[in-house]
Specification:
With 674 residues, the protein is α+β, with helices and mostly antiparallel strands. It folds into 4 domains: 103-183, Ubiquitin-like (UB roll), CATH 3.10.20.310; 186-257, membrane protein fhac (Ubiquitin-like (UB roll), Roll); 259-339, Ubiquitin-like (UB roll), CATH 3.10.20.310; 343-670, Porin (Beta Barrel). The chain contains 11 helices and 31 strands. It has a 17-stranded antiparallel beta sheet that branches. A 4-stranded mixed beta sheet has the order 4-3-6-5. Strands 7-9-8 form a 3-stranded mixed beta sheet, covered by helices on one side. A hairpin with a 2-residue loop joins strand 23 (530-543) and strand 24 (546-559). The chain is elongated and about 130 Å long.
Length: 674
């Protein structure tokens, strides 16, 4: 293939002064051939009637033609003979007679294809294309007006010719029918205007095979359809608005890409859906959008912007309406939003995994006040209290979803918490049946932001003061096995923790990878210094109607840390078939799970599962060896079956499990397995 030296690909709009005899093709003329040919070629019958009349009456034949046009994709038929007023009158009479004699036939002895000068075509392949297009016009055939008209249509419709003029010559051997054609120019170059998002490589690849060949209108239509398809598939407001063949075989394409002129927010009333005054600052919504002024509008991007605004949690309904921006060729975007109630009180209940016995085992109640749109900036404050048989958590959380002046969508959260949780995970099974509770006072700040698609990161600093109390509420430093309950030997441990976390989330949550690390900073001598790393991985694989879940988690602690911070193994989200923490507690751990779930009926599904967990022999390295004192095995497995019921809170899980000690146990939980 010759080198494409004549090709010019421009992805941005350039000035190109049109010549006086060339016109740009308007958008309404697309597709370029099919609409114009069907209407203009109907007039071929008008001219061929004269041809038939002239043969019958012995006059000189009158030509009928499709004259060349600077527009590559339109053809018009016009009479080429100058006519006086009397000839016009005769012409009208001939038309009338031809309509009556539409089925009369003229015997044609020879059919030829010639150029506009009556000579043979330079390219035999084009002559063969024209002859192959003929259907009725064959040597030694009797033709009607309609049949010649249809053959003219077929020659033009082949796509290689810009005009076709059939005429007849009375020879010694009979009537010779000649189709004078004018081929399109050879394709020598391309200029593309207004293509800001359309890749130049896509245009180049679309036209590369046609370089040096006669322009074919059908092929050009296909290329234009593929370009328009590229815009449509990707959601862009764009199309080919014009095509023009310039002198020298240079094709000029004009793209129409609708840029965003303006974006406005319109608040609608929740009940009437009429425009109203909103509480949210418009700039708080606009900064969430990825669509910007000056960009070519993209429907897919607009849908993602709608979803992003909905995830702010302060809107009940969001929609975008593009509107023409006058005659500029641009669009104005109007985003209609319906605000939710900003804040209020709520109450509810739940289940804690920390309590495994008692008449109110695991039940907790909660009361909270939350405000989702503080100061109209989508800032959130939440004050909550959870209270159970032993559990209690009081938490105040203030979140700024997007820090002002930051272009990375960084979120800041400030948290203060006072909690009391059972110590059964590590220090359960007291010989005197007494119970221990762990009290923590925590305050910290965290920053999180997207790192790249599907990846997010969190960094923070947290201060924690933790201690253990007995049933009377008195602080204790050792349990009934004389194992220490604090790392410092005091009634409370103080620690300043620097935290980092990286999370990967697959499409629709089908897979997840979490890696986190905490480092104790001994700013003061009595503050603890340790390093803790933890990793979790999970993937879901659909196999026909069933779903296979595989998960693996593990962690390790180095340094001086409180025994109650050891990794506890066993329970609903660990190794089922065991009580919470009953397998072991250590400085290290690994837990793996395999689960097959399948639909039963409606929202109800079934599951088969198997779990395994081990402390990797690290139980004795925990201060006081609480797992060894309680004769925990350090490793174990469980298996069983369960039922899942989908609910707005997540799947409700009821499971029955067996462990390797031949024990059986029910497990109940709400939400996905951690």
């Amino acid at each position: 293939m010759p080198k494409n030296e004549g090709l010019q690909f421009k992805s941005s709009s350039i000035k190109f002064p049109p010549s006086s005899d060339n016109l740009s093709l308007p958008v309404s003329h697309l597709p370029f051939c099919s609409q114009s040919l069907s209407s203009t070629l109907l007039r071929a019958k008008f001219s061929f009637t004269q041809f038939l009349d002239s043969i019958k009456h012995g006059r000189n034949p009158i030509k009928f033609s499709v004259p060349p046009s600077p527009l590559l994709c339109s053809s018009t038929l016009a009479l080429t003979q100058s006519q006086s007023q009397s000839e016009v009158t005769q012409l009208k009479a001939a038309v009338t007679r031809a309509r009556r004699e539409d089925e009369e036939r003229v015997l044609v002895s020879e059919v030829l294809v010639r150029n506009k000068d009556g000579e043979e075509l330079d390219r035999k392949d084009l002559e063969m294309e024209a002859l192959a297009a003929l259907k009725a016009s064959r040597p030694n055939s009797a033709l009607t007006v309609r049949e010649v008209q249809e053959d003219v249509h077929r020659i033009i419709d082949s796509g290689y010719f810009t005009s076709c003029i059939p005429f007849a010559v009375d020879t010694r051997d009979g009537i010779r029918l000649v189709f004078q054609v004018e081929p399109n120019q050879e394709f020598r170059g391309l200029v593309c205007e207004g293509a800001n998002v359309l890749p130049s490589k896509f245009i180049e690849d679309s036209f590369r095979d046609g370089y040096g060949k006669v322009v074919n209108i059908r092929r050009l239509d296909e290329v234009i359809e593929s370009i328009n398809g590229w815009y449509m598939e990707r959601g862009y407001f764009g199309m080919v608005s014009g095509a023009e063949l310039l002198s020298g075989g240079v094709l000029r394409l004009q793209m129409a890409e609708a840029e965003v002129n303006d974006i406005s927010i319109r608040f609608l009333d929740r009940k009437t859906r009429e425009p109203t005054i909103g509480k949210t600052k418009p700039e708080t919504i606009l900064r969430q959008l990825t669509t910007r002024k000056g960009q070519v509008y993209n429907l897919n991007q607009g849908r993602r912007d709608v979803e992003t605004v909905l995830t702010m949690g302060i809107m009940e309904d969001v929609s975008i309406f593009p509107q023409p921006a006058g005659d500029t060729g641009k669009v104005d975007l109007v985003m209609n939003v319906v605000e939710r109630v900003s804040g209020g009180f709520s109450a509810g209940g739940g289940i804690s995994s920390g309590i495994t016995s008692g008449p109110l085992s695991g039940l907790i109640g909660s009361f909270a006040y939350s405000h989702r749109n503080l100061f109209g900036k989508n800032q959130k404050v939440n004050i909550s209290l959870e209270r159970g048989q032993i559990d209690s958590i009081f938490r105040v959380n203030y979140t700024v979803p997007w820090i002002e002046g930051d272009d990375k969508r960084t979120q800041r959260s400030i948290m203060i918490q006072n909690s009391r949780t059972p110590g059964t995970l590590v220090h359960g099974d007291q010989r005197d049946n007494s119970s221990l509770t762990i009290g923590r006072v925590t305050a910290g700040v965290e920053f999180s932001r997207p790192l790249r698609p599907k990846w997010s990161g969190t960094a923070g600093l947290t201060f924690q003061r933790a201690g253990v109390r007995d049933e009377k509420g008195d602080p204790v430093i050792k349990d009934v096995y004389s194992s220490p309950l604090t790392a410092s030997g005091n009634t409370h441990d103080n620690m300043l923790l620097a935290k980092g976390e990286c999370v990967y989330t697959g499409d629709l949550g089908s897979s997840m990878l979490v890696f986190s690390m905490e480092q104790g900073l001994p700013i003061l001598p009595e503050w603890l210094s340790f390093n803790r790393v933890n990793a979790r991985a999970r993937t879901d694989v659909e196999v026909g109607p069933t779903n296979l879940l595989l998960s693996l988690s593990g962690g390790h602690v180095v340094g001086n840390f409180p025994p109650h911070e050891a990794f506890a193994i066993g329970g609903t989200n660990s190794v089922r078939g065991y009580e919470e923490g009953a397998v072991g507690s250590g400085r290290s751990y690994v837990v793996g799970c395999g689960e097959i779930s399948f639909p039963l009926f409606g929202p109800v599904g079934g599951a088969l599962f198997a779990d395994y967990g081990t402390d990797l022999g690290s139980g004795p390295s925990v201060p006081g060896d609480p797992a060894g004192a309680r004769l925990k095995p350090g490793s174990g497995y469980g298996y069983g079956f369960g039922v899942r019921v989908e609910s707005p809170l997540g799947p409700i899980r009821l499971e029955y499990a067996f462990n390797d000690k031949q024990a059986k146990r029910f497990h109940f939980a709400v939400g996905h397995r951690n």
